[in-house]
Structure prediction request, 427 residues.
Amino acid sequence: MTLLKAVRGTRDLLPPETELWNHVEATARRVFARYNFGEIRTPIFEDTSLFARGVGEETDIVSKEMYTWEDRARAQSEKSQSLTLRPENTAGVVRAYIEHKLGESGLLQKLYYIGPQFRRERPQKGRYRQFWQIGAEVIGPPSAGSESPLRDAEVIEMLSSFLDELGITGWTLVLNSVGSASDRPKYVAALREALAPVKDQMSLDNQRRAETNPLRVLDSKDPADEAVIATLPKIADFLDDESKAHFAAVLSALDACGVKYEINPRLVRGLDYYTRTTFEFTHGGLGAQNALLGGGRYDGLSEMLGGPKAPGIGFAMGEDRLVLTLLAALDQSVAPPQAAAFIAPLGEGLNAAALALARELRHAGLSVELGDGSFRLKKSFEAADKTARAIVILGEDELKSGILTVKTFATGVQTKVPRAELAVFLQ
Ligand code: HAM
Prediction:
């Protein structure tokens, strides 16, 4: 029989590495709470048209990378429907914002999410077909201040604080402004004009994009396209005064709190919903897939999905990439967690008493490994040494007298400890 394995591009996350995942998530929850964000959980699959309309038909994500299927109607009351595993979470959050009329409170909605996303990309280091994002969105009616450049700066400042708190150093923040919806047509027209005489020199994909969605030409990672891309007009030269002032205000707020950045006029990001501020945090240690996270403003997304005017800004971090970066700093491995004690019953007749003792210690908040009375003492010691800081021996004498024998591995010292004092001793 052929052995079944996890599907290409997916993987199992195992202990002790999952400790690191939990640590990253706990740090995110702690930091986001300080900025008064609440958690949102949206479904893992959605109507395909949400992504086609939100992320954009001509993006790589929608045109090549989605896991989409036709969900057949089972009953007469059901219609068949095209469904897609979410490739990102912003479209889902904005759909939920519209569906639950969250804008009617008149307040800014500050929502974060943690969960798997799916893209059928070519797997490589830091790039998977099922990957995890930790993201957040700030969205609301303009009267709540959702368009303010202060929101952009605050979100970016939060990210720099998060990475510092997590202990990830050596990142670079790259920023750009892609202008408003009204700046876009002028820039796209200029791109079309510049591309017309040279587009044949590019990859087939980019020749197609030059026709259908010229902005996406800039996303190409094909080295064959680099020379042409370098000659194309820059979006910075097409921003109107309002967009320029907005970007300048974001930069000055970042300057005021000492968050360092670089400006990259080619950072347009691979999703169609962006307006004005776009950004990425990169890390040299990641190799080719060097974006730790990406985000930006999407002032028109709610309206694109049929909702009210609700400007917003957000980001998503690649959790897989955060963990890879932390693992590199730890020299590729996480020490397995150690229980406070391993309880070794001397004989199967003592198994039940051992479970009762383990229950007592666990109720006192200790982490406990429970051996088995069928083990020889030597085997118990070996197992205990690998998994716990101390071994507690429970024989008939110990059970009757209530005085237990404890050996602490770090010191090699063996001690008699009354049962009532055991939890405190092991702490
Ligand atoms: P994105 O740039 O497509 O943006 O993805 C954000 C981050 O997710 C990337 O920087 C990367 O760390 C991680 N990522 C993306 N694809 C993969 C993959 N195949 N394997 C591992 N990690 C990956 C978005 O998804 C937007 N929704 C972000 C956003 C939120 N913009 C505004 N709000």
Observations:
- The mean pLDDT is 95.
- Residues 88-90, 119, 121, 126-128, 131, 133, 135, 137, 291-296, 314-316, 318, 320-321 surround histidyl-adenosine monophosphate (CB under 6 Å).
- The longest strand covers residues 109-118.
